[in-house]
Fold this protein.
Amino acid sequence: MNGTSGALALEANLDLAAARPLREALIARRGAAHEIDASEVRRLGAPCLQVLVAATQDWDDAGIPVRITARSAEFDEALRLMGARGLVAKRGCAVSMRILTVDDSRTMRDMLRLALVEAGFDVVQAIDGLDGLAVLEREGADVIITDINMPNLDGFGFIERVREGRDASRHADPGAHHRKRW
């Protein structure tokens, strides 16, 4: 776990051996609002989940906000499989939903980002449908907001390609659609 200020960057493998260092890193930050960066997490075991839930309960009881804003697909999948996504959110740790906005208008992208970030969402953006496919593959998303009239690949083509990608991954690997966030 990195440092005692700024976002707490979680390790890639949060197994039993990582539970104690995670607990110590969270104790070092006790009493201060902060963000948790789970973008590198590839494995989340139950002991580390228990540490996260207990720590966020402490902060919640004290009225101190804690947010998990950067999340890997594996982190989200582990929360889902353990039935903990809602539990973590209920315990005061906001697991913000990632929204992909796809629009060729910078003004519209900026307005969407401003409104969505203020509402507590994690936002990733793309400038057209082709860029949207690349961002979606690289970053993942829980929700997509897309414009229709765009250069390179319009909104209808983008939606069609996203749906094709989901269908193809289901046929090639039946469990793949559970691992992808879109």
About this structure: The beta strands are 8-9, 13-14, 34-38, 43-44, 66-71, 93-95, 98-102, 122-126, 143-146. Helices lie at 16-28, 46-61, 73-81, 85-90, 106-118, 129-139, 155-172, 176-179. The chain has a mean pLDDT of 79. The CA atoms of residues 63 and 92 lie 9 Å apart.
